[in-house]
């Protein structure tokens, strides 16, 4: 089990390194939420399934390089409207990315992009939220809706800018 958790940590590190520095997201070319929803339409050939609920509210972020402990690293600069969400209740829908091999987990990543295409580039830092749920959440390939307290982390050592604390699954109707 410890080997699996170590592998998950290494995979996450590799995923974030592949995302690269510069823009805060590899997939934020579509700024208009209406166009983003259209781009995620499963009927469009080659479309990457994309969650839209909540992601448009945190999209105004960019990266700059900063020297931290004598190493240049990208850090987040949040727009005013995003910074105002820090510590506030937040609802978001996305796709479950496990950090371990359990069927249920309280700590996982939520992605705006479906993890279904092995040939698509990985999500960037602005496309991920680290979740700390109050109760274990069952791993699924379907989109899930969560609510919790949003925390921003501009200089997170793992490159995760968003954290959802005390999260719980919101039943879909």
> What is the arithmetic mean of pLDDT?
77
Oligomer: single chain
| Helix proportion range | 10-25%
Percentage of residues in strands = 35-45%
Structural class: alpha+beta
Provide the low-confidence segments as ranges. Answer: 1-43
| Broad shape | globular
Strand count, sense and closure of the main sheet? 5 strands, mixed, barrel
Distance between the termini: 36 Å
Number of strands: 7
What does this structure look like?
The chain is an alpha+beta fold. Helices cover 17% and strands 36% of the residues. It has helices spanning 2-19, 33-39, 80-83, and strands at 61-68, 71-78, 89-98, 104-111, 128-138, 143-152, 162-169. It has a five-stranded mixed barrel. The termini are far apart.
